[in-house]
Amino acid sequence: MTQRILIEGGDAFAFAADEDTILRAALRAGLGFPHECSVGGCGACRFDLVEGEVETLWEDAPGLSERERRRGKRLACQTRALGDCTVRVRLSEEYRPAVPTARRKAVLTSRHWVTPEMAELVLTTDGDARFLPGQYALLHAPGIIGARAYSMSNLANSEGDWRFIIRRVPGGQGSNILTEGVAVGAEIMVDGPYGHAYLREDVDREIVCIAGGSGVGPMLSIAKGALGQGSGPVVHFFEGARTHPDLCGGKVLASLIPQATSRLRYTPVLSAATHEFWSGARGFVHELITPSLPLPLDRYEYYFAGPPPMIEAVQTLLAVQNQVPHSQVHFDRFV
Asked: Labelling 163: which of 70, 105, 186, 265 has CA 20 to 30 A away?
């Protein structure tokens, strides 16, 4: 059964009952509905229900404060319509999907550990794997309640190959099931692509990729996309980890063709190095940006992904301390 959702004073779009959230239905319709994480963490997709009946999928989603809940605010990524509805939200062109989103059945074809705590999963779908470097998808796997958002670590392809680097989090239901619990051959639903922090191929500024933890996945995708072009800007790739075994980006980047790696500057940074043999940089990854880059910081195009403290530190470094224009800073917020 299909209902209609009306944006107050504007567009209407179809909604498949028992399948879509309001956000996903809007994005599939090509509308610029505000969003970032798509899983209830960031609060970017807040809206007001004007008319109709809806179901809340996650009552305690951290994307809403108690004050916002009392005022009737809802999250479009955690709301499913039970019939025709009218909602109030301000659409924006910047949120219009760069690539059409879709739900696809995938098979987990392989999984291997890239560090002691991170595994790369390879999922295979029928048809093309269409996404831009740096985007993410929502994974629905057996045994996991709700969706989990993970960025692709590879590039778009015609083989239906989707790759994700996932960190095993202590006590994390989703990450533990995906890295160890789901058997190879199992079916996983892939919903995407989503995300705004994708590679801008029309920009000729040098690129800075900053990765922390499993944030190395989308940064590898962006670096591969930029370096895979016949010619293009230099890519400065900073990877932060606790110890040497936790690094994996350098191994992947070293396998790129020599013509590409001549434009690559890779800097690994360890925050908890325990071995005396490590002669590389120590500290937090954002601390290496200023001393490592030869030009003023506002001359580069930035992409970054990692844990929230790293994201906040990089934002402060770029926007507050160095006045880097907002248009040159790209990241997707996950909480």
From this structure: 265
- Reported as a single tens digit per residue, the pLDDT across 80-136 is 999 999 999 999 998 999 899 988 999 999 999 999 999 999 999 999 999 999 999
Which class is 2-95 in CATH? Answer: alpha beta
- Is there a contact between 77 and 45 (Cβ–Cβ < 8 Å)? yes
Every domain of the chain and the residues it spans: 2-95, 102-194, 207-330
Q: Is the dihedral of CA 29, 33, 35, 38 positive or negative?
A: negative
Q: Which fold has domain 102-194?
A: Elongation Factor Tu (Ef-tu); domain 3 (2.40.30)
| Torsions phi, psi for 189 (to 5 deg) | -85, 130
Kindly indicate whether the domain formed by 207-330 is annotated with CATH number 3.40.50.80. Answer: yes
74: nearest Cα among 57, 90, 94, 91: 57
Q: Are 200 and 330 in contact (CB under 8 A)?
A: yes
What's the pLDDT tens digit per position in 161-187? 999 999 998 888 889 999 998 999 999
Long-range CB pairs of 24-28 (<8 Å, 24+ gap) are 24/77, 24/101, 24/191, 26/76, 27/97, 27/101, 27/194, 28/100, 28/101, 28/102
As a whole number of angstroms, the distance between CA 301 and CA 200 comes to 9
- Other CB atoms within 10 Å distance of the CB of residue 289: 23
